[in-house]
Design brief:
alpha/beta; 8-stranded mixed beta sheet; about 40% helix; binds ligand 48F
Length: about 260
């Protein structure tokens, strides 16, 4: 016999335990795309307590869809090791270019973050930041369903030593900080806005632009190019992976 109430109780109790265990963490990440997931993997592997909030039902962001829904991604020489470490099978296409099944790359990237100890909460959106002494020190979160329905429901907060905006093209957390908090660490003090496609430049700048954009807040992945006015790059994902790794390394250097 299966007791429906035991199922309900188990779900509620385990969620409560895991959620309350995530109220104070070393690093909080907004967005579970390739950059956020890769950052989560390296940070958690180094023993940091990491939580990721993802608006959608599925973590993975824009990597599932490959290019125009053909479920293949391309990575380049300097980044392929990040996928090899998690056993993603790569085909060498031409000198310096490798292709992978986007569903394999995406699911293994997510699984690796989880296996190393990062906690991912799906269907939760970051809608604001916590600020103390001119430093971002946490996220303000709400159910995505509340956001989508436009319900007037106050959010909850979690505290983190460092936060990462890995929300992709929209750079949502940086946009909130620009609007409500103050100057970003960019040439204009504001979001410079993403430029049209150029994979050659975009792949390079996405790594260079990965940095602390406001005290306590790092930006990684496509959000970094959006914030620093650099091009998009389409379905080549090496830069996203390298950006996730770089943000983890930079935070590991600073964190107590
Ligand atoms: O867009 P996304 O995959 O960002 P990324 O890791 O990678 C970019 C590439 O997918 C692609 C590209 C590569 O050539 O240009 O676009 O930089 O993942 C971002 C994730 O953040 C979630 C969103 O649902 C997606 O899964 N997200 C966005 N805003 C919020 C959020 C928010 N406010 N709170 C929580 N999750």
């Amino acid at each position: 016999m299966i007791d429906d109430i035991i199922v309900t109780r188990k779900i509620f109790e385990r969620f409560s335990e895991e959620f309350s265990n995530s109220f104070e963490v070393d690093v909080a990440i907004a967005g579970a795309g390739p950059a956020g997931m890769t950052a989560a993997r390296y940070l958690a592997k180094s023993g940091k307590k990491v939580v990721v909030f993802e608006r959608k039902l599925s973590p993975g962001g824009g990597m599932w869809g490959g290019g125009m829904t053909f479920p293949i991604i391309v990575v380049q020489e300097g980044s392929k090791k990040i996928l090899e470490e998690i056993n993603v099978r790569l085909d060498r296409t031409e000198e310096g270019y490798y292709s992978a099944d986007s569903i394999e790359a995406c699911s293994k990237t997510c699984a690796a973050a989880i296996d190393n100890g990062a906690k991912i909460f799906n269907t939760i959106s970051v809608e604001d930041v916590l600020i103390r002494d001119n430093k971002v020190n946490g996220f303000v979160i709400n159910w995505s369903a509340v956001e989508i329905a436009g319900l007037h429901v106050d959010p909850l907060s979690i505290r983190a030593k460092y936060c990462i905006d890995a929300t992709g093209h929209a750079a949502e957390v940086c946009r909130i900080v620009q609007k409500k908090v103050g100057r970003l660490n960019t040439p204009s003090g504001k979001i410079e806005e993403e430029k049209s496609m150029c994979a050659e430049i975009g792949e390079k700048t996405v790594v260079e632009n990965t940095r602390e954009v406001y005290p306590g807040l790092f930006v990684a992945g496509m959000a970094a190019n959006a914030v620093y006015g650099a091009p998009r790059m389409g379905p080549i994902f090496g830069g996203m992976l390298l950006s996730g790794k770089k943000v983890a390394e930079e935070i590991l250097e600073k964190i107590d």
